[in-house]
Specification:
Order of helices and strands: HHHHHHH
Strand content: under 5%
Number of strands: 0
Radius of gyration: 26 Å
């Protein structure tokens, strides 16, 4: 790699981390001003999402920093896991409520995803076409494909 390529790559990573940290800092500032408790990192992620969704910040600007953080995500969770061990006594006393809330929230998320997926992937009529004009695949083609699959399995 030439010096110019190294400088360009370094600038791309610097710009990506600057965007991520600016969103985090602004999120923390907004979080302190809110009358209710929302972590600043969550507000920062929402700010980053809005910036990317409205294309105020191009996605390729934040991509290098995000890819590094995602590749090393397991390393970033080690301090949190070790820190939880400091509160083992408290966690062991509250294990049943924690498990119930985890199971209930998992069930709720699964139901919401199933309903959302069903809504997104349901069949919709073709706009501008009468129901009789929609062409369907011939049944003979489907039955021949099924028969061919059955004969392959017997060989």
């Amino acid at each position: 790699m030439s010096f110019k390529q190294v400088m360009i790559t370094g600038w791309q990573y610097l710009r990506a981390f600057a965007i991520l940290y600016l969103c985090l800092i602004v999120g923390n500032l907004i979080s302190t001003l809110l009358p209710f408790a929302i972590p600043g990192s969550i507000v920062g992620m929402l700010i980053l999402f809005i910036l990317l969704a409205f294309q105020i910040v191009p996605a390729h600007w934040a991509q290098p920093g995000c890819s590094i953080l995602l590749k090393n995500m397991t390393i970033l969770f080690v301090p949190i896991g070790v820190g939880i061990m400091n509160y083992y006594d408290l966690l062991s006393q509250q294990m049943i409520p924690i498990l119930v809330s985890c199971l209930a929230s998992t069930l709720i998320v699964m139901i919401v995803v199933a309903i959302s997926s069903n809504y997104v992937h349901k069949e919709r009529p073709v706009v501008g076409v009468k129901p009789d004009e929609v062409s369907l695949p011939p049944e003979e083609t489907l039955s021949s494909v099924i028969d061919n699959d059955k004969t392959k399995g017997n060989e």
